[in-house]
Design brief:
The protein has 395 residues and is of the alpha/beta class. The chain is 35% helix and 23% strand. The strands form five sheets. It has a seven-stranded mixed sheet.
Length: 395
């Protein structure tokens, strides 16, 4: 069923209440998601994006109930990833000659995924598509936000920016607009989305935001590919992105660890105690990685000025949960953050040295040599862990 967005623009997407992971099992979606597709019915009829492949049949059948498919003049694909383009094969079986407008890289993506040679029309920044009634779609390439093929498009007169993945959230809701949903949920999902998907491209994003601002466009709505449409003060999410893309940090120190026999856990809790005793203004958060979602912890890393990572030594290395997490941190290319390590060991200590090396390799400023504990910590060792926490706070 279509939902009215503005004037002759309608949402024709899919709400996925049951989605719990995205990008395979790479990203957790505790609150589901939406796949936002849009139908514009001016003198020309335009479909912007489709939905994820499992919903292809449902999408095409529902769209056919809303409009004669043969009346669709153009299809715009802002991004070739399967959550945007998954229904194209089914749709193009019905209307095989309909022109598809996308970037050159998106043509490569669609051909590579679906092995079809549809009626592609390549666009670049500044190109326009006439909708009739004095309205146009203006295309803006958004390469590496977050794929090389990504773009956005702007509808003149109605002043709607169809922003693709930028400014979105994985957030299932029947309420179409940002002012109708829980604001804490909305911004928590927005910052999680940025932290886990867009952080590596912050420098590119800063330049793209400057480019969009230089176009001097009036933006009344930002229609995203996932989650809600921003209609109430839509620029607020642009301003948030500008902050988040600028090596973002809050007054927060986050401790992340895994443990075997709870020695490293005891160290973590006492390090947290020491940080708080030294600086009662700093937000301290402690996460046992084995019991916490990785993407939620990454969001806390994004907000932190310093992280403290811990693991016992096992087989001359660290627990695989921490090893995988440190690899993820490196991939996300955080900037201007500090870190240090801690852990217990029995026969030979390697974990702290390895973790500090991983922090340095990931671009963190390592602030000390770390804290090593031979065997399970006693009261004296726990007091030393508290002092280690105080030292972290001072630095």
């Amino acid at each position: 069923m279509r939902k009215h967005v503005k004037n002759n623009v309608y949402w024709v997407g899919k709400t996925d209440w049951e989605l719990r992971t995205f990008h395979g099992y790479q990203y957790s979606t505790h609150k589901g998601s939406t796949y936002n597709a849009y139908l514009i019915e001016e003198e020309k009829t335009v479909l912007i994006d489709t939905v994820w492949l499992p919903f292809a049949d449902e999408f095409v059948d529902n769209l056919a109930e809303e409009i004669e498919l043969e009346k669709i003049d153009y299809i715009v694909i802002n991004h070739g990833e399967v959550d945007h383009s998954g229904a194209l094969v089914k749709l193009m079986e019905r209307i095989p000659n309909t022109p598809i407008y996308c970037t050159a890289n998106c043509v490569k993506s669609l051909r590579g995924q679906y092995h079809k040679d549809w009626n592609f029309n390549v666009v670049k920044t500044g190109d326009k598509l006439d909708l009739g009634n004095g309205k146009e779609l203006v295309f803006v390439e958004m390469a590496m936000l977050h794929w090389p093929d990504s773009m956005a498009c702007y509808m003149t007169q109605d002043n709607i920016l169809f922003s693709n993945d930028a400014f979105g959230q994985h957030y299932a809701t029947e309420m179409l607009f940002n002012d109708l949903v829980d604001q804490c949920d909305l911004f928590n999902e927005s910052i999680k989305y940025f932290a886990n998907i867009l952080t590596p491209f912050s420098a590119i994003l800063r330049k793209k935001l400057e480019q969009i601002i230089s176009l001097n466009l009036q933006i009344d709505m930002i229609a995203t590919s996932h989650g809600v449409i921003w209609r109430d003060n839509p620029v607020q999410i642009v301003e948030k992105y500008a902050q988040w893309a600028n090596d973002y940090k809050e007054n927060q120190i986050t401790i992340i660890y895994d443990t075997m026999w709870n020695g490293t856990k005891a160290l973590a809790e006492n390090i947290a105690k020491g940080i708080s005793e030294e600086d009662n203004d700093v937000m301290v958060k402690v996460f046992n990685l084995a019991k916490t979602d990785d993407n939620d912890v990454i969001t806390e890393v994004f907000k932190s000025k310093t992280i403290v990572v811990g693991s016992p030594t096992i087989m001359g290395g660290i627990l695989h949960s921490m090893a995988g997490f440190m690899h993820l941190i490196k991939d996300l290319k955080f900037k201007k953050k500090k870190g240090c390590a801690f852990g217990c060991y029995g026969w030979k200590g390697e974990s702290v040295r390895l973790l500090n090396g991983m922090l340095e390799d990931a671009g963190f400023e390592v602030i000390n040599e770390g804290f090593e504990q031979n065997w399970h910590p006693d009261n004296e060792s726990l007091e030393k862990a508290v002092e280690f926490g105080r030292e972290i706070a001072r630095k």
